[in-house]
Amino acid sequence: QGAPSGCLSQGILHAMPVRTREFVTLSHVDRGRKSKNMGGNVMQMWKARHILLGMLTWVPILNAWRQRHASTGGSDSARYCYSVWFRHLITLNRYGFNVRGANIGELGPGDSLGIGLSALLSGAGRYVGLDIVPYSAKADLNKMLDELLDMYMKEAQVPDDKEFPSVRPRIDSWEFPRHAVDRGNVITKAEEIRAQLGSGLDSGFLLGYRVPWMSLPQIDEASLDLIFSQAVLEHVDSLEETYRAMFAWLKPGGYSSHVIDFRAHGRSPFWNGHRAYSDRQWKLVRGKREFLLNREPLSTHLTLAKKAGFELLLTQRDQAPHGLDASALARRFSKMSETDALTSGVFLVLQKPKSVQALGN
Q1: pLDDT of residue 48
Q2: 133 vs 361, higher pLDDT
Q3: What pLDDT sits at residue 8?
Q4: Average pLDDT, stretch 82-109?
Q5: CA geometry: angle at 272 spanning 268 and 273, to 5°?
Q6: Burial (Cβ within 10 Å: 0-12, 13-18, ≥19) of residue 229
Q7: Which of 17, 147, 320, 331 has a 20 to 30 A CA-CA distance from 75?
Q8: Among the listed residues 115, 80, 77, 75, the one whose alpha carbon sits nearest the alpha carbon of residue 99
Q9: Overall average pLDDT of the 162-184 stretch
Q10: Closest CA to 292 of 20, 8, 11
């Protein structure tokens, strides 16, 4: 892809999500196993509730209540943020990424900037979080910093799959990755972070928060060493523009690391039930929500990443073979490839070529 320009800003503004709760447990898959052939009238019954809830967001007083109480979940926990960051970092380190002094961006940090604080404590030089709703503005980041610093100083193990069974990516060892962090400067970095928090999130170079993110120029082209997200890209409406933007932001040789959750996020008792809604029904389900699910499969992400110019370093798939049969899905999803149909989640590691003639080409 070519370098993004200002004309992309409105599309990406409406597309950019916050990172959502990784709350769909294995029990949802179990229900899919028991009911994989269910559809027809039964399927229409479970759709009705979600369509009604979406329509209610058009009632001003109800939508205002929703906005006041909205939360993404997950990133308000220091242990969650610590676990997510180290899962990304440990994997990226295998492909040559060095966090020391790195400029890092995150799409959709959600309820706090805890994952970004973890990155800074590891040795990153700068972090910026991009969102469309200022969920993190309400977070107690000093408390989050204290809890993260305590774990760093104790070299606490990475919280594992027993504590966070649905969190990805998977890693081989839960030991503290001493080799991957700038261990000697943790205290100094914590003091620098605390000083900036006292003056305001965007008061210094170390920590940035762009909400609402409305234009590409807020991040310079070829300025980031890493752009990552955790259960975010499944919510992006304008995926092509977003992949182009990420490619443009990265320096040559920079990395792009993303966990993508293809499950229904509570909009169905079946893990793939969100693909049973017609486009018209899905529009009703979404209502006035700032984001929901784009329902795109793995192949769409791989195609757009390649089109943007990325090289694919890792595809780590989760497979959920049980759910609604293809015959119960909406027409545009009924003929997906077997890989797309069975992929319930993926972890992608992408890299911008170290030598590029022009951004996006």
Answers
A1: 94
A2: 133
A3: 35
A4: 98
A5: 35
A6: buried
A7: 320
A8: 115
A9: 95
A10: 20
pLDDT at 71: 66
The CATH number assigned to the domain holding 234 equals 3.40.50.150
For every residue of 27-81, DSSP letters joined together read: HHHHHHHHTTT--HHHHHHHHHHHHHHHHHTTSHHHHHHHHHH----STT-HHHH
263 contacts 311 by C-beta, under 8 angstroms: no
In this predicted structure, what is the pLDDT of residue 357?
A: 55
At 304, list the tokens: 């757009």
**Does 175 reside within a domain?**
yes
Establish if 117 belongs to a structural domain: yes
Instruction: Tell me, yes or no, whether 22 lies in a domain.
Output: yes
Q: Where are the alpha helices (DSSP H) in 98-216?
A: 114-122, 141-153, 186-199
Determine the Cα–Cα distance for residues 241 and 8; give it in Å rounded to an integer. Answer: 6
- In total, how many domains does the chain have? 1
Distinct helix (H) and strand (E) counts, the chain: 12, 7
pLDDT digits (tens, 9 = 90+) for 7-30: 333 343 334 443 433 333 333 333
In this structure, how many other beta carbons lie within 10 angstroms of the beta carbon of residue 258?
A: 24
If one compares 213 and 11, the residue with the highest pLDDT of the two is 213
In a domain, 174, yes or no: yes
Domain of residue 278, residue span: 6-351
Q: Judging by beta carbons within 10 Å of its beta carbon (0-12, 13-18, 19+), is residue 165 exposed, middle or buried?
A: exposed
191: amino acid identity, one letter: E
% of residues, the chain, pLDDT over 70: 83
Q: Other C-beta atoms within 10 Å of 117: how many?
A: 28
> Which are the contacts of 198, defined by CB distance < 8 A and separation ≥ 6?
none
| pTM assigned to the model | 0.86
Dist. CA 168–CA 230, nearest whole Å: 8
Q: What is the pLDDT of residue 328?
A: 94
pLDDT at 254 over 80: yes
